[in-house]
Design goal:
Layout: H1 3-33, H2 49-61, H3 66-88, H4 92-113, H5 120-132, H6 138-162, H7 165-168, H8 171-185, H9 189-227, H10 239-261, H11 268-293, H12 299-310, H13 312-327, H14 340-362, H15 369-379
Helix pairs in contact: 1-3, 1-12, 1-13, 1-14, 2-10, 3-9, 4-5, 4-15, 5-9, 6-9, 6-11, 10-11, 12-14, 13-14
């Protein structure tokens, strides 16, 4: 492979990761901006048709989609790292165990101090499963991924048929809990930390029920496609990309509409529809972005997004720092005071700033600030931030 093609391949992956960062921020910022989402309650202060439309669009096109893309890319990159270690004759397992251990600690601190519910520590734990399965055949990996979705279909389907959601979630209690959460987030730093810790069981239940299993499935699919180098030498003209768009948008948008129209996470049937169809919409987003980035006019999109994705860990944590400073009592204390539309606008603004800062940082250094720390943990060395000698 030529150096130019290799750089394009790497930038494709980084750009996809950058795109995923925006979607993840749009979802996560809602939990920082309001105490209501984590309690599956509607904020009576923001119940206009515009507010409802913003919530509906986010549920249909963003919620439960972008963490799948991030997870897929984790599995894909895991395979690339494995093969690179094998070529270099390096011991992969000890390095990966240190990396996952470092990721777990970073994620735990992130979940306690900065955000309601962290995914990094979950990635670290599920990454152990992926590490244990690194030698399984493609067929076995795909069977396990398919079995996970079959399990979710059976369990969520049974819950839809036999469980009365209204008996589990009392609207009055949910609103009171949401108001208390908002008050805690608007308080001191210790209040914010306490709220994050109290939310862990609720978030953990969601991880055990849906997000954890689907993350493992996406890891495995990413690992398999990484083995086959499916993101290598993409030209944007492949017929399979158009097929993925056709099927993905048709099935994914249909499921998204069902999920959004039924009220999102408050309805088990809606969650089932989203779980089964979100991978299709995620795949359609990937296919669309690849086609755009490999068009004559779309190459700037790749160049714009790739630096943000290259330092995705730093940017993910940076997003949480920004939302803490904007919404909690640690900073401006705007929790509960910003409309859904304005909240989404803030998310876009934060991401835009991160894109600019990522370009500036990577013009000077080879990897992001937190990536440098995790790299040192992985290699058991002292953290350093290598200066760039040439532009990639």
């Amino acid at each position: 492979m030529s150096q130019g093609l290799d750089r394009t391949r790497i930038q494709d992956i980084d750009a996809l990761r950058g795109f995923a960062l925006l979607g993840i921020l749009i979802v996560n910022i809602t939990f920082a901006a309001s105490g209501f989402p984590i309690h599956l309650a509607e904020d009576p202060a923001y119940h206009s048709w515009l507010d409802q439309t913003v919530h509906w669009l986010s549920a249909a096109f963003v919620d439960m989609k972008f963490y799948l893309l991030f997870s897929f890319l984790f599995g894909y990159s895991f395979q690339l790292q494995l093969e690179a270690a094998q070529k270099a004759g390096a011991a992969f397992k000890p390095r990966m165990l240190r990396r996952l251990g470092g990721l777990f600690v970073i994620g735990a601190l992130h979940g306690i101090f900065l955000i309601t519910g962290d995914i990094l520590s979950v990635y670290a734990l599920i990454g152990l499963v992926l590490l244990g399965m690194r030698r399984v055949s493609d067929r076995t990996a795909l069977i396990v991924a398919g079995s996970i979705y079959a399990y979710l279909f059976i369990t969520l389907g049974a819950a839809t048929l036999f469980m009365d959601t209204s008996a589990v979630i009392d609207p009055t209690t949910a609103v009171a809990s949401a108001q208390q959460t908002a008050a805690n987030l608007a308080g001191s730093f210790s209040d914010v930390i306490g709220e994050h810790v109290r939310a862990m069981p609720t978030y953990g239940l969601s991880l055990l029920a849906v997000q954890g299993p689907t993350t493992l499935a996406a890891f495995l699919i990413g690992m398999v496609l990484g083995r086959r180098r499916m993101l290598t030498n993409v030209t944007g003209t492949e017929a399979v990309l158009r097929l993925i768009q056709l099927l993905g948008f048709t099935i994914g948008i249909t499921g998204g509409i069902v999920y959004a129209s039924a009220g999102g996470n408050g309805d088990t049937g809606a969650v089932l529809a989203s779980v089964l169809t979100a991978p299709f919409l995620t795949a359609a987003y990937v296919a669309t972005l690849l086609r755009v980035m490999h068009s004559d006019r779309g190459q700037d999109v790749r160049r714009l997004l790739a630096p943000a994705g290259r330092m995705a860990l730093s940017n993910y944590l940076g997003q949480s720092v920004a939302t803490v400073l904007i919404f909690t009592g640690v900073g401006l204390g705007l929790v509960g005071q910003v409309s859904p539309l304005a909240t989404m606008g803030i998310a876009v603004a934060i991401f835009a700033v991160q894109v600019v800062l990522s370009h500036l940082w990577l013009n000077r250094y080879g990897y992001g600030p937190v990536e440098g720390v995790l790299r040192a943990i992985t290699n058991a060395t002292t953290p350093t931030w290598r200066r760039r000698l040439s532009r990639v």
